[in-house]
Amino acid sequence: MSDSELSVGDPFEGTHTDSDEDYEPENRTEGRYNLKNLAAINFSSSDFSAEEESNAQQPKHLSHGNSTPPTDRRGRHEKRPNKLHEDINTKIREHILSFPRYKSHYSRKDNIHQKFFVENYNITFGKPKSDTCQKCDKLTNKINGANSDAEKKVLEREKSFHIVKADHFYTDLKDKTQLSKNDPKFEVITFDFQQNLPLPVSSSGEVFYKIQLWVFNFCEHLGSNGKSYFYIYDETLAGKGQNEVASLLLHFFNNFIRPEVTAIYIFSDNCASQNKNYMLVQFLHSLVETNRYRFICHRYPEPGHSFLPCDRSFGAIEQMKRKHDKIYLPRDYINIIKSANKHFEVIQVTQDFLFNFRDHFQRFFEKSVKQKFQIHTV
Ligand SMILES: [Zn+2]
């Protein structure tokens, strides 16, 4: 092998074990790796005839003086030996269609995914079973097992009414939220506790056998600006009862509600111990009686259909939480919440946030009411 043929030096010199025959020019057309050819093509093109040069010895785009690389054609060819035959596609489609299906109970409104799957497969994705509405499931089973058309009709009407009421709650929430954005006198608040957050979180199996410290996270979502405010504290400070809910609502009213607001719409789920009790009614009533606000309306959803903006915020936190396999301190949760969304604000609850409203209101209100509450249906 001469020096001129490897003018840039042989990177494999002294390392390859093949015989010199492998590097002879005649081997180059057989598609074998040929170091001598590389050197000749790159630096000694005059050694080849014009015909040889055009026979793909050089890349075409270079041989024509064009410095732009050719378009990458990978993945665009029609030779696809592994492509599924149309018959197999049809069978897959038939198999998908054989899955049991049911209509989502969350909303009757279409979304883009629902539209695609309904148009292409007539199926949609539902929530996991643990998250379905018990009443919807019960009525669906009864409808499927109805003995007569008349019975089926009655059950279908009952289910339809149930879903209409659920939809009405969400329509009202949407309308009132829009109102709060347009009129500074109105505000919309939704609130809820997140599922308890454990400490520590660790991949170590031993953690499961220890008593963990619970961290509580109370979310209050403001309709006018779309922000979520998280009141965070651990179980050594307080619990998750009606006193905590009223206390944290009061802090929220004092610090985050615009001063010009005179009417508030509150939306929360039906949890009796936290949100649907006499004490909370007494607390809200006192705010109106003392002329703090002109009007407060607290709305509860149809049981089983209580997905609120807070739940969407909790979903974002859970997603961020999954990225952390070690969480040791409450402040780690605070950082996780803050990083989950730029519209999330965290407030660390201290003892001076909390009041014993329950005992306080017992002095001003009867223990039992003679006239039962009137539930307004729409
Ligand atoms: Zn339902």
Summarize the topology.
Blueprint: H1 35-43, H2 50-57, H3 60-63, H4 86-97, H5 112-120, H6 134-144, H7 149-182, E1 186-193, E2 197-199, E3 213-222, E4 228-234, H8 242-256, E5 263-267, H9 278-289, E6 295-299, H10 309-321, H11 330-340, E7 344-348, H12 357-362
Parallel strand pairs: 1-5, 4-7, 5-6
Antiparallel strand pairs: 1-3, 2-3, 3-4
Helix pairs in contact: 6-7, 10-11
The structure holds zinc ion.
Helix/strand-derived category reads alpha/beta
Strand content: 5-15%
Radius of gyration: 35 Å
Describe the sheet with the most strands: 7 strands, mixed
CATH homology superfamily of the domain at 169-362: Ribonuclease H-like superfamily/Ribonuclease H
Quaternary state, please?
single chain
Report the principal-axis shape.
globular
Q: Care to count the β-strands?
A: 7
Low-confidence stretches: 1-50
Mean of all residue-level pLDDT scores: 80
Helix count, per DSSP? 12
Q: Calculate the terminal CA-CA distance, rounded to whole Å.
A: 96 Å
- The CATH class assignment of the domain at 169-362 is Alpha Beta
Bound molecules: zinc ion
Helical fraction equals: 25-40%
CATH topology of the domain at 169-362: Nucleotidyltransferase, domain 5
Order of helices and strands: HHHHHHHEEEEHEHEHHEH
